[in-house]
Amino acid sequence: MTPAFARTLNALGLIALSVGLIIAFLDQFIKGDLPCPLCLLQRVGLTAVGVGLALNLIIGPRPAHYGIMIVSALVGGTVSLRQVALHVVPGTGTYGDAIFGMHFYTWAFVAFALVIVGAAAMLFFEGQFEKIWEMEHPWLDRLSQFAIGLFAVLALANTLSTVAECELGMCPENPTTYQLFQSGTGSG
Amino acid sequence: MMALPFLLLFLALLLAWRGQRGPSLGLWGLALVVLLVLFKEHATSTIGIIL
């Protein structure tokens, strides 16, 4: 596998992560489902995975960057598995709406598992780590810049959204309102 | 506090963009530690399942 092909796969992976975070935002802002603390921590896990992908795009593919993805996915997967376990027994309730038959935390667990498998599989292709001369790929640079830019915007949006929801403290277990706006207006 | 790991990771992305790999890795590690601490704070109840 050439470094350029590896970068292409990393760019597509980063865009796929962004799509997942955008779907979560759509559910939050359109359907009004505020993310719970564990939900937010799973978003953090996805964002941490993205740092490894972004480093592969900016610095170049390195085994340590795939290590970042695997460790992040292990931590994020642990959080999602905890939430799955909270609701796995019938009659114990759920959090949020299901999408395509599964809840967000279950999809998050699937995503983290796929990241671990995908990053581990990429480590087998050692050709991407060799310093070989390659042609310039302007389209790949543009794709990488788009993927990193979109992902960085989503990381910042999650920062601001979480401040709006929880202010600077801990989030309530079952959030129903944006605390920042509530305290700003003095109501409730 | 819950926004802190997002902010750290956003800054890690900015540093990576500027080519500062070491500081970016440091912020990523710090964000993961904060994530684990927050997870410990929120995962306190016992789950009624048999493993």
Helix content of chain A: 55-70%
* Computed Rg of chain A: 18 Å
Number of strands of chain A: 2
Alpha-carbon Rg of chain B, integer:
15 Å
Oligomeric nature of the chains: heterodimer
Could you state the order of secondary-structure elements of chain B as H and E? HH
Alpha-carbon distance between the two ends of chain A: 58 Å
Counting helices, strands and paired strands, the structural category of chain B is: mainly alpha
Q: What is the H-and-E element order of chain A?
A: HHHEEHHH
Please sum up the structure shown.
The complex is a heterodimer of chains A (188) and B (51). Helices cover 69% and strands 2% of the residues of chain A.
Which helices and strands, and how do they pair?
The complex is a heterodimer of chains A (188) and B (51).
Chain A: H1 3-29, H2 37-58, H3 63-87, E1 98-99, E2 102-103, H4 104-122, H5 138-166, H6 179-185
Antiparallel strand pairs in A: 1-2
Helix pairs in contact in A: 1-2, 1-5, 2-3, 2-4, 2-5, 3-4
Chain B: H1 4-17, H2 21-42
Helix pairs in contact in B: 1-2
What does this entry look like structurally?
The complex is a heterodimer of chains A (188) and B (51). By secondary structure, chain A is mainly alpha-helical. Chain A contains 6 helices and 2 strands, in the order αααββααα. Chain A has helices at 3-29, 37-58, 63-87, 104-122, 138-166, 179-185, and strands at 98-99, 102-103. In chain A, strand 1 and strand 2 (102-103) form a beta hairpin. Chain A is globular and about 55 Å long. With 51 residues, chain B is mainly alpha-helical. Chain B has helices at 4-17, 21-42. In chain B, helix 1 runs antiparallel to helix 2. Chain B is elongated. Chain A binds chain B through residues 37-38, 40-41, 43-45, 47-48, 50-51, 54-55, 58-59, 64, 68, 71-72, 75, 78-79, 82, 85-86, 88-89, 92, 148, 151-152, 155-156, 158-160, 162-163, 165-166, 168-171, 173, and chain B through 1-3, 5-7, 9-10, 12-14, 16-17, 19, 21, 24-25, 28, 31-32, 35-36, 38-39, 41-43, 47-49.
